[in-house]
Every structure is written in C-alpha cells, then in structure tokens.
Amino acid sequence: MPDARRYFDLSSPFPMKRGGELVGARLAYETWGTLSAARDNAIFILTGLSPSAHAASNANDPALGWWEDMLGPGKPIDTDRWFVICANTLGSCKGSTGPADINPLTGEPYRLDFPELALEDVANASHELVRGLGIDKLACLVGNSMGGMSALAYLVLHPGSARAHISISTAPQAQPFAIAIRSLQREAIRLDSNWNNGHYNDAHYPEAGMSIARKLGVITYRSAMEWDGRFARIRLDSEQREEEPFAVEFQVESYLAAHARRFVRSFDPNSYLYLSRASDWFDIAEHAPKEPGGGSVEAALKRIDVERALVIGVETDILFPLAQQEQIAEGLRGTGAEVDFVALDSPQGHDAFLVDIPRFGAAIARFLAAL
Amino acid sequence: MPDARRYFDLSSPFPMKRGGELVGARLAYETWGTLSAARDNAIFILTGLSPSAHAASNANDPALGWWEDMLGPGKPIDTDRWFVICANTLGSCKGSTGPADINPLTGEPYRLDFPELALEDVANASHELVRGLGIDKLACLVGNSMGGMSALAYLVLHPGSARAHISISTAPQAQPFAIAIRSLQREAIRLDSNWNNGHYNDAHYPEAGMSIARKLGVITYRSAMEWDGRFARIRLDSEQREEEPFAVEFQVESYLAAHARRFVRSFDPNSYLYLSRASDWFDIAEHAPKEPGGGSVEAALKRIDVERALVIGVETDILFPLAQQEQIAEGLRGTGAEVDFVALDSPQGHDAFLVDIPRFGAAIARFLAAL
User: Residue B1 falls within a domain, yes or no?
Assistant: First the structure.
C-alpha cells in the first residue's frame, strides 16, 4: 500500500506531563510543498481525535486525505506557497506511538500501561518534530477540534514558536457538556466486556462499545438542522431492513451505522480512551501565571505570542460552541495580536470544517493570503 | 407501601394501531381534586416516557410526585378547582399493562411478544379511561414531552374531546436528531448481552445498557448552558474517585452516574424500548386528510378541535427544539383556536418543565385562570 508517512524520533525518554515517560517514541508525519531556504513558510496542522497524518493526497500516497479539498496546489492552504506538515497525534494509532504499540521496556503492547496522556504532551511532541525539521518558527500553526486545544497548549508552552495561528472549532478548556459526551463514549467502550481492561484482540474486540462511541460522536459532530433537511423521516426500503427486534428503520439510523462500521476496526479503542480523556483534561487556564488575576483562561491565553490569528467557529456546533471560539478570539486579542473572528453559519455543526470547504476555505485562504 | 393508584380496565380485546390486540389490559391512574357535578372540570395529564401516574402527593400516597410543585391546592394546576387525572402510559411498567406484565393468553410475561406500540394506542387507551370516568369532554388535556405527542394523537383521533390543550416541549413528529439519540439509547440496551432479546431477569439484567441509555437521556434532557454554570470543571474529591482505569473524575460525570443508578432498576428495559420506538414512529402528519394539501403536519393539526391552547417551549431544548413548538402553535392557530405561544429561556433544556416551575407554573396558571 502506498504510504507517504515519515517518522520522527522523539527525545528518549520523552517526559509526560502527568508523570512517566516514553522510551523510543516517534511521530508519523507527512508533508506537502517545499520548505523555503529561509525556512519561514511552514504550516503545521494539529488534528482532531481520529485523523491520520494523511491530510491530503501526495506523490507517495494518492489516496484522498481527510482535508483533501483544503490542502494542495492552488487550494486554500496553497502548497505552491506553503510547506505543510501534518502529524499523527502522539497517543494515536496511525503511525505515532500510542497504547497499541510495543513498549520497548517490556516487549509487550503498552495497552493501559501507556502513561497518562495530556494534550500538552501532544503539543510538546509536535514542537520537537517541527524543531527537528529545522524550523525555528512556524509561519502558521493550525489546529482544529482536539487539535485546536493542542495548538493552544503548543503556543502557550512555546511562546514565539509561530507567527500566526488558525484556531478552528475548538475550546480553551473542556466544558461539562463535552465532558459528559466523551465520558459516555468512554463508558460504552469500557462496559463492553470485550474491552477487557484494554486486553482485547481481533477475535475479542469491543465492537459494540466502539460502535456506540462513534455513533454518539457523529450525532454530536453534526447538527439537528442539517439532518432535518438531509434525512427528515425517510425510511429504509423494506429489503434494507434487518429482521431482528428493534432493527434500524430510518435513514438517519443507517447513516450512523455506516459511520460506525467504517470506524470501529480502524481506530484502536485504547487510543480512543486516552485521547478522549486528554480532551476532558484540557484546560488552558492551568497555564496562567500564578499571580493575582492568574488562573483564568484569559490570563493563560495572554501568554501566547503570535502576530496574527484567525479564529473560526460554527453556529450549529454543539460540542465546541461558538461562545468558546469567541473566548479564544478575545483572549488572543488581549495579547495584542491582530485577530480575525469568523462565525460561520454552516449547517454541519462541529464537522463543518471537514465538509463545508467553501466557507472554511474562503476564510482560511483570505487569512493566509494576507500573511 | 402507600399507593394511590386505581386501575381502569380497557376494552378487551384492545386493538393496537400497528396490528395485534391486548386482552385484559388496564391503566393505572391517580386523581386529585373533585369532579364537578357537571363533570366539566377535568384535566388529564399525559406523561413523558418514564413517569408514573404519581404526578403529586395525595391522601393515599404522601410521596412527592414527579410534578409535585405544579399540581395541588393553590398550585398552578389548582386542585381546589380542577379534577386532575394522570395515568401511567400504556406500555409502561408503573401499573399500566406493558411488556413486563403477564400475557393472559400464555401465562408468561409478554416481553417482546407485546404488540408493537404506537402513541396512538397510548392516546386511545387514555381516552377510554377518561370516558370510563364519565367525562365526555375534558376541560384541558395536558401533555409534555412524549406525552405531548400522545396528546396531539388524542386530539386528532377524538375531535371535540377537550375544550383546551396545553402542549409542553413536544413534537408533531419525531425528527432525525431525536430519532438518532433514541435509536442509540435502544442500541445500548440491545447490545447488552444481558438484554438477551428481552429475556433478562434480576440476576441477569441489562444494567450497562440501561445506564448508557439513561445517561444519554439526561445529557439531551438538560442543556450545556445550565451545566457550564452548575458543574464547570469541578472535580470529585480524591476519596470520591474509584480506582479503576478511566474512572469518573468530574462532577458532571458523577451527576450522570447518580441519575443512571436511580433509573436502571426502576424502569423495565423492554418498556423503555417500546416507548422509545413509539416516539420515533410518531408523526401527526399520518393523520392528515387524504386530499390535496393533506399529508402535512399542518393539515393534520387542522383536524384538532379545541377552543384554546397554550404551547410552551424552551430555547435550550435540543431534543424537542423550539421550532417544533412554534409549528404546533401555528398549526393549532390554523384551526381557529385561540393559541398562546410561550417561549421560555429556562436554562434547563428539555427538562425545564419538571424543574423550572416558576416559569412554567406562571404560564400554566395564567392560561388555566382564563379558562
């Protein structure tokens, strides 16, 4: 199978925020475009919970990427101008070191022996990769969804590491509705007896738990408004229906089932648990200075040092609501940065950045053109 | 244990909308106040999915009811003036006939042999009860959540059966977001191996599935806005935490767990599946006249014959969104009824009618005072 991934060895041992360390860990990454001689045209993309480093097709891997229409020659993130890097998140299962990998100290898969993962670890690993590629300062750091939280951690922990920042549909801290959803997704996996405290295998795999987790994800990633128009009360044809009691009957149910089928065996359940919990833990306020007026999201964001920022949110996003994007934009303005805040009325909810390329692409292209 | 329930025998056989019939079925109900000599002061309450007939305390059962602050002497539904009836829903498990009851034809519990249940069956059974109590015409029919859908069915199937109607946080038809949520709740129960195609018992009970279903319910019954203020990122004390991997850590998680604990053993899982599916199936448009312009929600609502109606919705309700309450209000206006539409900004989402008695009570008291 074509594979465009390259691998970067993290410092070893790589210390983790909440204790413990990783030995011999690495990040999988892909790149598009050419790094300029001055090394000043690099854009780094931090992803959501499940994507791989394959954001778009490239010479070594022609498969469509998860942000195919956003990224490439002449596209909103124009790889004729920018050198773009996307890494698989530390703790994930698409080439970067995570719970499914062999622990070199034991010769066995980490599973739940993987150290507790925080998005600050994701940020630090990504920063090592960027530095390892010989880039002192990114032209722009892009983060969406969970990756937007990792990006805020990156910018707070490494001030001056990027000239510009694009923050998309994310949060400066996890709020209780999102925590409740993710907690329930984790519970569905943990309650699946095949999860077996992380000791599953292909024959005994927490398929039911992963399916529920993914469906709940898709429900909260999209919007009721989109579905009213898209599915209404359309039913499956009788030949599409299964005979079992309480079988799926409406199109919206089979849409969810199709999403779940594609996901459950392609993402490591333990990775899912680690990254989901890391999202709940994230609170940029932890990085505020310990002084009067510290301890707040605003005080923490004030430590970020970028010249310009674009903050994009979607009105129909119930998981990362628009108010949180406004909070990020306000906080970045407090640093003296020039901040564009764009509220889009995409109907697709949280997932809009993946699918509503007309709206998102226009905002991003406009911002990057002015850099 | 004190018990205020009385029982009404439905006609036998009682025919079901989707086929089949019930033999020897009954409804459990409670009443408050006194029926006037003219039998013209009766209010009937149709409940949401899980409540019993015990809407409020009374002489025979002093336990607090699920609408305790709404209903009683001097309360918004003033039982000094009104004779109030609340029944447990047909198909439920709080005294009315449902899947957990013995099928008199076999001597075994119905379980999944209970006939397919529609909210029209709930409506018809309720109408029989009201007629059986000697009431030709209700002063007011009240329905909230699922009960609001049953109430619309009642009014369409039995025109002229109520002078007034109070419709609360409900829907004229199930929309895909709500269907997706309920479908996932049912799936969590069905995937629990202890569900065993409906053949569980106390020792092998689908506790995990019911817990996930209930938590997902609570998440969608409340609102992100309420939780931001109520839970924020408050964590449990370390002594409250369990030692297991990925244990609950935030207050919002233990709040959900407490809700689930109270529910899982107190509601029959098969009843839950039947009532949940009945909600998905509900579409008042099925009752529209078969003529040009028929087939729509509007055309169906036009068949309702009440003099006055109060339609209440909540801006933070994600399960039964305000737009659906507006649709009901508009439809009822189309019948010539005098309709009050009240949009409340209660932060508690769909559950607001249960807890925001100041706002809901004021609207209901004002409406009833003018009857």
Answer: no
